[in-house]
Design brief:
- With about 260 residues, this protein is an all-alpha fold.
- Helix 3 runs parallel beside helix 6 and helix 6 packs antiparallel against helix 7.
- The protein has one domain.
- Helix content is about 70%, strand content about 0%.
- The chain is built from 7 helices and 2 strands.
Length: about 260
C-alpha cells in the first residue's frame, strides 16, 4: 500500500505554494480572464514536475506546524516576487503606449481592460496585444515557466528568508525597463514633437487658424503613420528586449 510521509507532503506543499503564487502574480497566467481551474491545474502540474527534480533532502523539510507555516509563507513571498518581476516587464513595455497615447491625444478617452480591471486607453490596448503576441511567438511562456523552475535551483524549498529578495536590484531593473519603454516610444514621440513644433509655427504665421482644433487630427494621423512605419523595427526590438528582461527577472532573487 502506498504511503505518503509527512516530509513528502510538506515538501510538495512548499513547492506548490511557490509555484501557485508565481502563476497567480504573473501576467497572462494569472489574468482575470483565465479560469481558476486552469491556474490551479497548471500550478499542480508544475509542482509535480518540480518535485522529483528538486534535490532538497526530505530530512531538511520542516514538519512541525510553526516552522512549516514560516517556510510556507516564505515560499509564497518568493513566488509573488518572481511574478511581480514578470509583471514589471510587461508594465515597462506598456509604458511606451502611455507616453505615446498622451502625446497623440488618445489619453482623453479610456476603456475598461478586462485583463487587469484597470482603465486603459485604446493605444495601450494595442501595445498590450502586440506585446502579448510577441511574448507567445518567442515562446515567452516557456521562459516564464523555466524561470519559475530555476528559482528552485537558486533557493531550495524551505531554505529561503527575507534576504533572498534582492531589493537593491529592483530599482536598476525597473530603470532599465523605463529606458526600454522610452526607446520603444521614441519614433512616434519624436514625430509628434516635430508636429507640435510645426503646428506652433503655423499658429504664429496664421493667427486666424485654430491650432488646437486642427492639431488633434493632424497629430493622430502623424502618430498612426509613424507607428505603422516603425512597426517592423519595433517588433524586433521588443522581441529581443522582452526575452532578455524575462531572463533578468531571475536576478531579483539571490541565493
Amino acid at each position: 500500500m502506498f504511503a505518503v510521509s509527512p516530509q513528502w507532503s510538506a515538501h510538495f506543499l512548499l513547492v506548490l505554494g511557490r509555484v501557485t503564487a508565481a502563476v497567480v502574480a504573473a501576467p497572462l497566467f494569472g489574468a482575470r480572464s483565465v479560469p481558476t481551474q486552469i491556474k490551479v491545474g497548471l500550478s499542480i502540474l508544475l509542482a509535480l514536475i518540480v518535485l522529483p527534480l528538486e534535490g532538497t533532502p526530505l530530512t531538511a523539510i520542516p514538519v512541525d506546524l510553526f516552522s512549516f507555516a514560516s517556510a510556507f509563507g516564505m515560499e509564497i513571498l518568493i513566488g509573488i516576487a518572481f511574478g511581480i518581476g514578470v509583471m514589471l516587464v510587461f508594465q515597462g513595455m506598456e509604458m511606451a503606449a502611455s507616453i505615446v497615447s498622451i502625446q497623440m491625444g488618445f489619453g482623453l478617452g479610456e476603456i475598461f481592460d478586462p485583463l487587469t480591471g484597470a482603465q486603459t486607453g485604446v493605444l495601450q490596448q494595442f501595445y498590450k496585444m502586440l506585446v502579448t503576441l510577441i511574448f507567445f511567438a518567442m515562446n515567452g511562456h516557456y521562459l516564464v515557466i523555466q524561470g519559475i523552475l530555476h528559482t528552485f535551483e537558486v533557493i531550495p524549498p524551505g531554505t529561503g528568508d527575507l534576504t533572498v529578495i534582492a531589493g537593491d536590484r529592483v530599482a536598476p531593473f525597473f530603470g532599465a525597463l523605463l529606458v526600454t519603454s522610452i526607446q520603444i516610444a521614441l519614433p512616434v514621440f519624436g514625430a509628434l514633437m516635430l508636429t507640435d513644433l510645426a503646428m506652433a509655427l503655423v499658429g504664429r504665421t496664421v493667427p486666424q487658424l485654430n491650432v488646437l482644433v486642427v492639431g488633434f487630427p493632424v497629430k493622430i494621423g502623424v502618430g498612426l503613420v509613424t507607428l505603422a512605419a516603425a512597426m517592423p523595427l519595433m517588433t524586433t526590438f521588443i522581441s529581443a528586449t522582452l526575452g532578455r528582461a524575462l531572463v533578468d527577472v531571475n536576478g531579483l532573487l539571490r541565493p
